[in-house]
Design goal:
By secondary structure, this protein is of the alpha+beta class. Helices cover 43% and strands 13% of the residues.
Length: 397
């Protein structure tokens, strides 16, 4: 694990910071610190334009291999880029799912033809992706997936029927990678396949889900005889579970350091308010602020340890604690923000009664311990896969 940076690294840090300072201006100025979790509904078209701006500067897919259109930056430089991006107030990435999940998975498991077809649009910031994993009865446990796909030999297409839920930015996406059951009668991890499905078809319905915050960046997605070409399967039929697990490994990649810098920005805002309104003189609140600061440092060091392993989608055992740790920490930060604000946390200034950033943080962070795998599921993963403890009994019902 590397926790310090060389002189060359620091020169690269200044390069990133200078580019962000020079380019996150003008039409993009309004995007500073916008579009993160709980705010993803804001400025979607402007953030897509920002993706193209990043691509022009060579700042998309910086860790991808050059043969896939990336810059092949070292892990250290990727960490620096993500930290400086967030420090400068870079907006939530519309291309995150493509760059961080779909792209690395296609690069690792796709054919040369699939790589040539799908990766350039991600690099150029012109093709946007969403994730079709969770279902009403298969949220944290993908083994319960019911969405099915059948190969229509006559048309040379997969025909997909089912429902996905909690699909972030599905309404803004061009493609969705879908886990579907392609082997009739299969159960559990068997018989699943990883399909790439175009969203622009009448057989796909996207229905927004309104959150406590009043926003609807999440969606239900219904597939009613939706179609994708037979060639748009990653790996072989039945390889879906293996590929899905590798993708979740890519999700624990260097972008986690950018996420933590966003957390750092939120904590700094809370500390500034505490100093301004006197909440920092309350010994209990002061202790909670210190604990939040310490927790963020622990998160960073654990991430650096996690990133010191393989970058092929496989996970070190230490990586299994990451989701449980950050989601619990962030939910606590949301409550701390409300307690620091005091009575102001209960008030909105005037119509149309838009939530403040910290109010949105509090409400949205209630979901942190649920989406992406609930805390209960995360504890089972740690116990069973990392510690080798006996598996939890499964109901036969």
């Amino acid at each position: 694990m590397k926790i310090s940076f060389s002189e060359q690294d620091e020169r690269f840090r200044r390069e990133v910071a200078d580019w962000m300072s020079a380019n996150l201006t003008g039409e993009f100025e309004q995007l500073r610190f916008r579009g993160g979790p709980g705010d993803e509904h804001m400025f979607p078209e402007e953030r897509k334009a920002w993706e193209r701006k990043l691509a022009e500067g060579g700042w998309t897919c910086v860790g991808w291999a050059p043969e896939h259109g990336g810059r092949g930056l070292s892990i250290t430089q990727q960490v620096i880029f993500n930290e400086e991006y967030a420090r400068a107030g870079g907006p939530g990435r519309m291309g995150h799912i493509g760059e961080g999940l779909a792209g690395p998975t296609i690069a690792a498991f796709g054919t040369a033809e699939q790589q040539q077809r799908f990766l350039p649009g991600i690099v150029s910031g012109t093709s946007f992706w969403c994730q079709g994993y969770s279902e009403p009865g298969a949220g944290s446990d993908l083994a319960n997936v019911k969405t099915r796909a059948t190969l229509d030999e006559a048309s040379g297409q997969w025909v997909i029927n089912g429902q996905k839920v909690w699909t972030s930015l599905a309404h803004e996406s061009d493609w969705c990678f879908v886990i579907a059951r392609t082997e009739p009668g299969s159960v559990g991890h068997r018989g699943l396949s990883f399909l790439l499905v175009p969203m622009a078809q009448a057989e796909i319905t996207v229905r927004p889900i309104e959150q406590l915050t009043g926003t609807s960046e999440f969606n239900e997605v219904f597939f009613d005889d939706a179609r994708t070409d037979a060639a748009n399967i990653i790996g072989a039929p039945g390889d879906g579970w293996k590929i899905a697990m590798a993708l979740l490994g890519f999700e624990r990649g260097v972008s986690t350091l950018g996420q933590q810098m966003q957390f750092h920005n939120e904590l700094n805002e809370i500390i500034a308010i505490a100093k301004a309104n006197g909440a920092d003189r309350d010994p209990i609140l002061r202790q909670r602020l210190a604990e939040a600061w310490s927790g963020l440092r622990i998160m960073r060091y654990n991430s650096l340890r996690m990133l010191s392993g393989s970058q092929d989608g496989s996970l070190r055992k230490e990586a299994t604690i990451y989701k449980l740790f950050w989601s619990t920490w962030h939910a606590s930060l949301g409550k701390l923000a409300m307690d620091v604000l005091g009575a102001e946390a209960e008030l909105l200034e005037a119509a149309p009664y838009q939530l403040t950033r910290l109010q949105s943080l509090y409400l949205f962070s209630r979901a942190d311990t649920l989406y992406g795998g609930s805390n209960e599921i995360q504890r089972n993963i740690i116990a069973e896969r990392a510690l080798g403890m006996p598996k939890e009994p499964r109901s036969r019902a």
